[in-house]
Amino acid sequence: MSVLAPLLALAAIAYIVVVLDGWLSTGRLRPFAPATAALGLLARESVVPRSPDRLFFETAPVLLLIAAVLAAAVLPLGPGLVIADLATGALFVNAAFAYVLVALLMAGWGPDGAYAMVGGWRFLGQTIAYSMLIVMPITAVAMRAQSLSTADIVRSQAGLWNVLYQPLGFALFFVAGMAVAFLPPFDLPTAPGELAGGVEAEYTGARLAVFRIARTVLVVSLATATTVFYLGGWLGPGLPPWAWSALKTLAVAAAMLELGHAVPRIREAHLLAWAWKAGIPLALLNIFLVGVLLLVLP
Amino acid sequence: MTGTPMSPLQLAFVAFFGLAAVWFALVVFRTSSMMRSALALLFSQTALGALFLALQAEFLGVLQIMMMATEMSIMAIFMVMFMMDPGGLGQMDMTHQKRLSILAGVIAAVAIAAVALLTPWGAPATTVPSPADQLQGLGRELLGRSMLVFETAGITILTAMVAATAVAMPAFERRRER
């Protein structure tokens, strides 16, 4: 039960996020569109490239899904409503997101295709830069909670949410989250219109369905992480805790998806320059500021 | 989790992940594909991380699993860049200096076995501190006795990174950016 409920919640939120994204970007509310799209993909022929590294090609979509689900497994949706309440939960989230990189490298290498290969290696540079901006803001969050347990992190925000306590960290984490989920404007590994789908290019049918589901779950995991680390998790007046978690996660996921529609894609070199030259100094400044606040404020 | 000696199930997991680590380490040398080789090494290290988790060293396990993913991915791109046949499709022999490497491997294995067998480890611990206590203990260690060691290592790595970046920048690019 304690495993099933969060998993179902994850699936439900992922479904709603896709419907919501379709509604906000096309203006048409089609509640069954994800289901019909999935059925369409499952029924389609699943073509395998001519000379793939079969092991990587098959593993990549599944590993991406596993990484996204594992990250969500340590994020609480309510008091006690978590699959695994680890004492090192905040670190575990990072560990899970690190395997998104491995999955995309596999997807890039596996099909033996030029576009996929370029996409995979692009994501390597992108993730190494931006996973720093996941880890370092979480450090500041853990400093305030004096714990790496995700439940303790939520409880530490009872007085004031971290989004107000450390807004710089929130901004960095949010942007880095979009980069790790390779959402536009950070969609360099897939880059529709330029790389013809990149790491996705050689996937068809059921494999593509798994890949797309995994990416959506990844967005939801990152949105849940943002909620837990910065928006007070399940905390809120009136509604039951799980409802607050769901609402906040939905809002963050929708914001991540919608922001991308309004911003042009950034060039790889510029993307990396921004991360290393601006992002990381700002993340260090954030840690310093939070440290000062912790010492000064009672 | 405290106060319990290792259960048979726990022992089985430790053995499983230990064997998995050894198996993937062998795979590293059995394949000619640089990508497979690098990721096999990754999964060998991940298995070690899982082994730490089975031994109730939660922080160490999670850290190992996290760090290795990016580290081995970086290694993969360097291996692909530097090898002539990164896909291993050309039937090229990737090994060299076999006698020397076997000798080095045997000496290292003997040294590790000697350390493992000859060190007076003391009686096996019957209790494990809770994961939160482990974290706190690690934090105190890093800010106490081990601080100098870690700071020295950190500064050394940073210096090497700055130097490597400076060397990698061609002179004409530096001029152009001015």
Walk me through the structure.
The complex is a heterodimer of chains A (298) and B (178). With 298 residues, chain A is mostly helical. Chain A has one domain. Chain A is 70% helix and 0% strand. Chain A contains 11 helices and no strands. In chain A, α5 packs antiparallel against α8. Chain B is globular and about 60 Å long. The mean pLDDT of chain B is 86. At the A-B interface, α4 and α5 of A face α2, α3 and α5 of B.
Task: Please sum up the structure shown.
Chain A has 298 residues and is mostly helical.
Which band does the percent of strand residues of chain A land in? Answer: under 5%
Q: Tell me about the largest β-sheet of chain B.
A: none
Main sheet attributes: strand count, strand direction, barrel closure of chain A: none
Low-pLDDT segments, ≥5 res of chain A: none
Structural class of the secondary elements of chain B? mainly alpha
Share of helical residues of chain A: 55-70%
Which tags fit this structure?
heterodimer; A: 298 residues; mainly alpha; 70% helix; B: 178 residues; 7 helices; 0% strand
Set down the secondary structure blueprint.
The complex is a heterodimer of chains A (298) and B (178).
Chain A: H1 4-26, H2 33-43, H3 54-73, H4 89-109, H5 114-145, H6 150-155, H7 162-165, H8 167-180, H9 205-230, H10 241-262, H11 268-296
Helix pairs in contact in A: 1-9, 1-10, 2-9, 3-4, 3-9, 4-5, 5-8, 5-11, 8-9, 9-10
Chain B: H1 8-30, H2 34-54, H3 58-82, H4 98-118, H5 131-142, H6 147-168, H7 171-177
